[in-house]
């Protein structure tokens, strides 16, 4: 592994070496979850050169449709031009820096700056400058003064990602083998997915890595954090229900997935409990037979992409008295705001060709269990915020957390998908893989 | 005047129940067919006629019926609902109450009731707190045994919520 590079303070170098030394032994120091100096380095070395999820194409289906999204603190207008091409334009007038977009979403043929009136088409070109001749003379070239596009913008199956690093590898290369697991959701139907409305947004005093780890790897927290839902009969009776599955990581990439089936003896419908017609469509929609067969046996699926995107797709029902299953799908961005502070962007999605009754019910399954008021997620955010608080205390920051679960597990040779898979989901393997990748980016 | 006073009493009594975490008593104030919604609110430009901006129809923070509200209350009673255990110290400030004309319906006489709401929330031993400000657009119905909340739409004054979860009621 790379040595700590110059440009990192001696204090931070020492601390990162501690993380580097501990990770293979399953030890992670608490301070990494709340440290202002580390956060600055994460901004520079992680978020300024990683592929960050921005939006789903179904949020902006028509020419002129736009949504406002962020990479770090940079506001980008993600807009579909009249030519149908999606662009991400920095929401900052080239003249004096005012925001040119005054809404989080909408449809616009152009964006006009309220400061001096410079006006841009929805493809970013500067088309109007008040008193252009008088103010700037004959040789003013508007072509040089368009809105600044994000350095890189690429999409995978309708998922749009941006990257601030012009030299970054392609999104395809960045994703690598995790695509097989993304496709379990993106290719479940030939029509693909659509969002159910705009994202919920809320602020949590925690670290982006803590939130991410829960969705990436922490099957073990469900038995205590989410005990209330087990008591209510929403989660399976067996408190260890999340253990019965595979945990898969993509070495060198930092991504990971958890694919959970039915606990032994539990009578849960196959294929997450999606309606029969959706199962039939999936039979021919998935690129491979292995994906279809894996999907058919899945009840809970999570995929997390390095550095800060997750989706969660569990079997659920709209309330504790509902007979039957209505699965839900949520996309997440764990948006870093500062040390110990994140904003969560949370979307609900569904297959475009799902029956209408199902779209309504899956929205309820989502709202009642995940998102800002979700009865699972309420307890996650409560706990994450206390962990982040402790991680910045003078004594607590030096403690090393135990990431040793499953350290001695052998990979499952029979797993049909790519990556390194373990046949027991009670393992910190995905987190250890994430931290290796995290360190690699911080140190290079 | 009597009706106005009765509805004001309902709102103040409800606020007391919510502040004190007496959720079973609160559920008893709800009509069985209650619709309880908190739409997502986003920043939008001013429309030509002004008015309330950016209240989204497609997504909510809460979209509840009686059964799901009862589920949320039952969850708090399990002893494992960490988001509210220890409970938040909540104070519901209810002001600017506007009461519409009564209208007869097959289910009983109903009144629109609008109120402004400020919720103070403090947790653990920290001195900091959060405020959530909103307008509530209610329909209250006179049923046997008293007024019941038949419908509530909460128009939040935040686009991005300043609190880490919505583990309480508006």
TrEMBL record, chain A:
UniProt cross-references to CDD domains, sorted A to Z: RHO_alpha_C_NDO-like
Residues covered by the Rieske domain: 52-133
Name of one Pfam family that matches: Rieske
Keywords for this protein: 2Fe-2S, Aromatic hydrocarbons catabolism, Dioxygenase, Iron, Iron-sulfur, Metal-binding, NAD, Oxidoreductase
Gene3D superfamilies according to UniProt: Naphthalene 1,2-dioxygenase Alpha Subunit, Chain A, domain 1, Rieske [2Fe-2S] iron-sulphur domain
E.C. number: 1.14.12.19
Highest taxon listed in the record's lineage: Bacteria
MF term (GO), any: iron ion binding
Family: Belongs to the bacterial ring-hydroxylating dioxygenase alpha subunit family.
Protein name per UniProt: 3-phenylpropionate/cinnamic acid dioxygenase subunit alpha
Organism whose genome encodes this protein: Meiothermus luteus
From TrEMBL, chain B:
Species per Swiss-Prot/TrEMBL record: Meiothermus luteus
Protein family according to the UniProt entry: Belongs to the bacterial ring-hydroxylating dioxygenase beta subunit family.
Transmembrane segments: none
Higher taxonomy: Bacteria, Thermotogati, Deinococcota, Deinococci, Thermales
PANTHER family in the cross-refs: 3-PHENYLPROPIONATE_CINNAMIC ACID DIOXYGENASE SUBUNIT BETA (PTHR41534:SF2), BLR3401 PROTEIN (PTHR41534)
Top-level EC class as recorded in UniProt: oxidoreductase
GO terms, biological process: 3-phenylpropionate catabolic process
Protein name: 3-phenylpropionate/cinnamic acid dioxygenase subunit beta
Molecular function in Gene Ontology: 3-phenylpropionate dioxygenase activity
Stored NCBIfam families: PRK10069.1
EC number: 1.14.12.19
Keywords: Dioxygenase, Oxidoreductase
InterPro entries on file: NTF2-like_dom_sf (IPR032710), Rng_hydr_dOase-bsu (IPR000391)
Pfam family of the protein (one): Ring_hydroxyl_B
């Amino acid at each position: 592994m790379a040595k700590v590079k110059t440009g990192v303070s001696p204090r931070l170098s020492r601390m990162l070496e501690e993380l580097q030394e501990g990770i293979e032994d399953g030890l992670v120091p608490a301070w990494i979850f709340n440290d202002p100096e580390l956060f600055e380095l994460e901004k520079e070395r992680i978020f300024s050169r990683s592929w960050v999820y921005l939006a789903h194409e179904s949020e902006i289906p028509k020419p002129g449709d736009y949504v406002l999204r962020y990479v770090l603190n940079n506001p980008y207008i993600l807009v579909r031009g009249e030519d149908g091409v999606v662009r991400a334009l920095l929401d900052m007038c080239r003249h004096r820096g005012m925001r040119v977009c005054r809404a989080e979403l909408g449809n616009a043929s152009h964006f006009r700056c309220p400061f001096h009136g410079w006006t841009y088409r929805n493809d970013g070109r500067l088309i109007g400058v008040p008193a252009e001749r008088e103010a700037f003379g004959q040789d003013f070239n508007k072509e040089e003064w368009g809105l600044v596009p994000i350095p890189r913008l690429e999409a995978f199956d309708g998922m749009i990602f941006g990257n601030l690093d012009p030299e970054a590898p392609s999104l395809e290369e960045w994703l690598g083998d995790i695509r097989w697991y993304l496709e379990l959701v993106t290719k479940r139907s030939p029509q693909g997915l659509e969002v159910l409305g705009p994202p919920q947004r809320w602020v949590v005093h925690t670290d982006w890595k803590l939130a991410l780890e829960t969705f990436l790897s922490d099957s073990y927290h469900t038995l205590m954090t989410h005990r209330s839902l087990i008591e209510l009969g929403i989660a399976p009776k067996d408190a260890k229900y999340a253990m019965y599955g595979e945990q898969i990581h993509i070495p060198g990439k930092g991504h990971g997935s958890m694919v959970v089936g039915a606990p032994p003896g539990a009578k849960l419908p196959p294929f997450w409990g999606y309606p029969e017609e959706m199962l039939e469509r999936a039979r021919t929609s998935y690129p491979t037979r292995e994906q279809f067969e894996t999907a058919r046996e899945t009840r809970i699926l999570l995929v997390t992409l390095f550095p800060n995107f997750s989706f969660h797709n569990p079997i659920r029902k709209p309330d504790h008295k509902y007979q039957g299953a209505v699965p839900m799908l949520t996309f997440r961005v764990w948006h870093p705001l500062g040390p110990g502070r994140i904003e969560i962007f949370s979307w609900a999605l569904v297959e475009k060709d799902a029956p209408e009754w199902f779209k309504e019910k899956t929205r309820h399954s989502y709202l009642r269990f995940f998102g800002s008021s979700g009865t699972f997620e309420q307890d996650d955010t409560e706990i994450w915020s206390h962990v982040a608080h402790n991680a910045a205390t003078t004594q607590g920051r030096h403690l090393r957390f135990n990431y040793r679960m499953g350290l001695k597990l052998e990979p499952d040779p029979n797993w049909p998908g790519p990556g390194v898979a373990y046949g027991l989901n009670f393992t910190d393997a995905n987190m250890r893989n994430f931290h290796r990748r995290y360190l690699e980016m911080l140190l290079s | 005047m009597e009706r106005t006073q009765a509805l004001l009493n309902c709102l103040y009594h409800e606020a007391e129940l919510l502040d004190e975490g007496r959720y079973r008593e609160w559920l008893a104030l709800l009509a069985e067919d209650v619709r309880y919604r908190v739409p997502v609110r986003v920043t939008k430009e001013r429309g030509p006629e002004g008015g309330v901006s950016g209240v989204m129809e497609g997504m909510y923070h809460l979209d509840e019926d009686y059964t799901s509200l009862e589920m949320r209350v039952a969850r708090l009673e399990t002893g494992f609902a960490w988001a509210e255990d220890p409970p938040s110290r909540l104070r519901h400030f209810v002001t600017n109450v506007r009461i519409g004309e009564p209208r007869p319906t097959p289910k009983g006489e109903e009144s629109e009731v609008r109120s402004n709401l400020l919720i103070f929330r403090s947790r653990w031993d920290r001195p900091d707190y959060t405020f959530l400000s909103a307008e509530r657009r209610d329909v209250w119905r006179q049923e046997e045994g008293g007024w019941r909340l038949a419908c509530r739409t909460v128009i939040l004054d935040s686009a991005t919520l300043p609190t880490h979860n919505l583990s309480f009621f508006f």
